[in-house]
Structure formats: structure tokens, C-alpha cells
Amino acid sequence: MRVPTDLYRRYRLVHTWTGICAGLALFIAFYAGALTMFKEPLARWAAPPRAVALTDLHDSEALIAQTLAARPDAAREFTLDLRETEDVPARLTWRKSRHDDAPWSAALDAAGQVQITQLHPVALAQWIDVIHRTAAIPGTQELGEYVMGGVSLMYIVALVSGLVLVLPSLVRDLFALRLGANLKRMWMDAHNLMGITSLPFHLLIGLSAVVFAFHDSIYDAQDAVVYDHQLKSLMQAGMPPPPRGATAAAAPMLPPAALLARAQALSPQFEPISMTYRNAGTAAASVRIIGRDSRYMLRQVGWLVVSPVSGEILNSEAFPGRQSAWDAPVAALFALHFGSFGGEPVRWGYFLLGLAGAFMFYSGNRLWIVSRRRQAVSAQGREPRSLRFMAAATHGVCFGGIAGISLSLVAAKCLHGQVGDLAAWYRGAYYVTFLAALGWAFARGGDQAARGLARAAAGATLAIPLASLTGYLWPATGWWVNESAASLGVDVMALLAAGALWWIGQALAVDGRHSSPALAGEEAAQADAQTTARPLPRASRCTTEASTSTSAQVL
Does residue 504 contact residue 395 with C-beta atoms inside 8 Å? Predict the structure, then answer.
């Protein structure tokens, strides 16, 4: 299969520049997105020891009754967490307002009396998710998501144009990975292999990211066409309207176990996570039972809304296996983007695909740098500023992002209880590290800084298991180690990642010597001398001239 030369040139230009413009932001989004597949283990790793013991689930009815008696303001909305993991700070929590960052908690002491305390949650996993959604672009989260929506559009264009470019040699070169002295060919093989083998995944992620970024406009259209301008009020409430005839009069509530039995009766495989009560203690009360079922496509979780007064099911449209015709495709889109289906095999698959995607963006930039450097030095006798800028930006952004995320995790554990606003500190750790790496890359030059930045990222990632080890050996430091399998798994994965980054640093040192501007100039001079000594046939000269013309257009 042959693609016309003019069309090939246009698609190469489109693929090159859309990939370069979007690649760095997408590297951070994909790397952080891979980590979000294990948000719960990360939250468990960073969770400090509980100040108060977790109330037994069998005492939940008494806990709710005493909490409402002591704090009537909690009746507006509170959550009963059903999990037993170390990242659950308390059995029952609530907020004075939706914008309250420090929730309140209730627990029963040994004498069965309620104890009210204010929590200061770490919320580290949420910060990693924000990086994934916004690539840590400064400003509001909404602004970052809009920017990433535009980046995702360029990402889709780059995918389609890249597919057109590799179609002529798809069968021959699909699984080729030719290692050796030809660095351009090596980077191209690795880039193409990652791109083609994971193309459906990338198209899905790109399209769904565009939908998520511009969902407000989509919801406005749904509001007008489907929900008769009632969608916003329903979304803000998070619950369906109370049943007709319901009033604010006091009414006794069924025990949590009886409400959970309603969900289990609908689906024994449904795993409840939490119960969110609204207007508790009144006839207008409702409870949203949130949980998972890996057999179905869900918006990360599914839920069932019941009346805690009568036990009547109020809404089952988002319950696994009972989604409405309108909710099912929306839930499927969320599930396919976040990998919230299929259990552990899908989670690990998405994790590896996310890391492979990050490598694809990095390798695309490296391919552009290595390829254009030889052409530029041959034509101009020097490395142009655009190449120096891109080399520095590529290594500074990629390794700075990795190191920044790693030090955010370390700061969340090491600074807990030592500073007032912990979230500001671990966010600050990310931005300071990222900007320092970027500044060093521009000061030293991309190739010269690459090895040191990769090793710095390895050291920052190694600090994750070292923080846990320090807490285990010297608890007096105030650090800690959670000994669950999920938490220790984070330490093991960080240790492996640190080793991989160190190896990458070693490989980049060799790569940098082979692709340096001086060596590129020597190779170009040798190629020119050989060409002068042995003139090419007429057909070859035409091909070379066309190739040079195309390179000039790209540059």
C-alpha cells in the first residue's frame, strides 16, 4: 500500500506538530493516570494511624442515633463508611458545608459514648487524580480540564495521522524493534510499536477525555432535552426528590443492616462501600448505598437509593445490572476511561497501558529531536534553538513530573502532623520539584541534564519505600508504615520504579553521547564526503532532494 507523497508530507506535518504540542501534557496525565488505578493502595499507604479506634459496624445504629442527638447539623448529610481499611479515619463523617475541607467524625468509646472530633484528611490520592485530569496546569481544576480537553483533541488528530503514516509498512514493521547504533530507527520502532498495539485504548481515552472536559455543555443539552431543566438540581442534591407526601416530621429509621439487605437482595455480588444519609431522622430521609460490582460497567461505583424509613427503593438507575437505557452508555464511558470493570486483570492492564502511553509521548519527542538534529546540523552547521528548547522541555517536564509526584507522596507522610495545611505542602512539593527540574534542564541543556534528571527521579521515587522503612525502624520520627498487603505493595512498586528510572538514566547517558550535536555534525560531514566521492544515480538524487525538501518543511 502506497500513500501519495504530498499527502504523506501533510500527514507527517500534522502528526509531528500535534504530537509535540500535546505530548508533554499527555505524558504527565498518562503517568498520573496509571497511578490512579491504585488510588486505594496509595491512600492506604499515606493514611496516618487513627486517633480513635474504628467503631464496629454492628454498633452503627447506636452511633448514628447518638451522633444526631449530639450534633443535629449532621442530619443534613453524613456518610457511614463500611470499609475496615486503614485509610478510613472514622466510621461516621460529615461536613458543615460542601466546601468544608476538614470533616467532622463520630466514634463510640469503650463506654459506648459518642466522641466528636474534627479530621484533617490527607487526600493524597485525590491530588494524584487532579494531576491526571489537569496535568497539574496552574489555576482552577475547571481551567485545567478545559485545557486538557483541547490537548485531547490534538491527541486524537495525532493518533489518526500517525496511523496513516505507518499503514504502508504496518505488516512488515509492526513488531520490529531494531536495537543498535541507529538511534532514530530504534526510537521510531519503539514509538510505533507502542502506538499501534495500544491504538484502541488511546482512541478511547482521547475521546472520553474530550467528553469529560466539555461535559458541562453536554449536560446543558441533556438538561434541556431529557430532564426538562431539572438536571442541575438533581445533580446538586445527589439524590432523587423525596417521595410524594414526605414531610420534615421526625420519623424512626431502619437499622443500616436492614437497608444493606435490600441491596444484597437485588444483587448478592454487589459490594457496598458506604452509605450516605440525607435528611436523617425525618420522613423525607434517603440513603444512597454506594458499592462496586466488577461484572458491570459503572461510573467507578454504582449506587442504590432507598428510604431509611420504609425501606422502599427510590432509585436503582445506577445500580449494577439495573442501569437505565440512558445511564448505561454514560456509565460505560466512565468505566472504559477509568478501568472500573473486570477486576484486577483490567486494573493492571490499564496501569501498564498508561505507562506505555507515557513512554509513547516521550519517545515521540525523542524521535523528533534525534531525527531533526542530524538534518539541522547538516543543513545549518549548528543545532537550532527549537531543538535545544524541545530537548530541555522534554526531559525537564517528564522527569520533573515523575519526581514531583513521588515527592508529593513522601511529603504527605513525612510532614503529617508537622505543618498546618498538609495539602498545600505536598502540592508545593510537586510544583517546586517540577520547576526545579525544568530550570535545570534549560540551564544545562536537555541531553546534558537527562541523565541527572532521570537519577533524581529515581532518588525521589526511592524515597517512598525509604519513608516507610524509616517509620518502621524509628517510630519516634512520627512517620509510620501500614503493614497491609496493599500498602506494602506501593513500597515494592516504588522500589522497582526507582530501579527502572536509574537504568533509564544510564541508557540516556549513552544515548546522549551518540546523539550529541557535535557527533551529529561529524556524521553529517562524513555522509556529505561519501556522497561527493560517489555520486548517486539520478533516481536516488531525486529521492534525496525530495526528502530534504520534506525535512525543511517540517523544520
Answer: no
The Cα–Cα gap between 422 and 64 comes to: 30
Chain segment 338-388, per-residue pLDDT in tens: 888 888 999 999 999 999 889 888 888 887 887 777 776 666 666 678 788
Residue with cell 443534613: 76
Which distant-in-sequence residues (6+ apart) come within 8 Å of 11 by Cβ? Answer: 3, 161, 164, 165
How far is Cα 87 from Cα 536, in angstroms, rounded to an integer?
A: 70
The answer to whether residue 19 scores a pLDDT higher than 70 is yes
- The b/e string for 447-477 (b: 16+ C-beta within 10 A; e otherwise) is bbbbbbbbbbbbbbbbbbbbbbebbeeeeee
SS3 483: coil
173: its cell numbers: 514493521
Query: To 5 degrees, how large is the angle CA 440–CA 445–CA 446?
Result: 90
CA angle 304, 309, 315 (to 5 degrees): 25
In 3-state terms, what secondary structure has residue 136? Answer: coil
Contacts 24+ apart (CB under 8 A), 339-345: 339/37, 340/292, 340/297, 340/298, 340/299, 340/300, 340/301, 341/294, 341/295, 341/296, 341/297, 341/298, 342/294, 343/294
DSSP 235-277: HHHSSPPPPTT--SSB-----HHHHHHHHHHH-TT-EEEEEEE
CA 57 to chain centre: 33
Distance (Å, whole) CA 79 – CA 94: 6
What are the tens digits of pLDDT across the range 276-324?
999 999 988 999 999 998 888 888 888 999 999 999 999 888 898 888 7
Largest CA distance in the chain: 99
- CA atoms of 74 and 76, how far apart (whole Å): 5
Distant-in-sequence, close-in-space partners of 306: CB < 8 Å, separation ≥ 6 = 259, 262, 263, 286, 287, 289, 312, 313, 314
Q: Which element (helix H / strand E) includes 114?
A: strand 114-118
Which residues are bridge partners to 79 per DSSP? 93, 276
3-state helix vs strand vs coil in the chain, percent to 5: 65, 10, 25
Q: What is the mean pLDDT of residues 91-107?
A: 85
Q: pLDDT tens digit string along 164-192?
A: 766 665 555 555 555 555 556 666 666 66
- pTM summary value: 0.83
Q: Please report, in angstroms and rounded to a whole number, the separation of the first and last CA atoms in the chain.
A: 27
Separation of alpha carbons 496 and 468, rounded Å: 15
Q: Which residues contact 357 (CB under 8 A, 6 or more apart)?
A: 26, 30, 34, 194, 198, 201, 202, 205
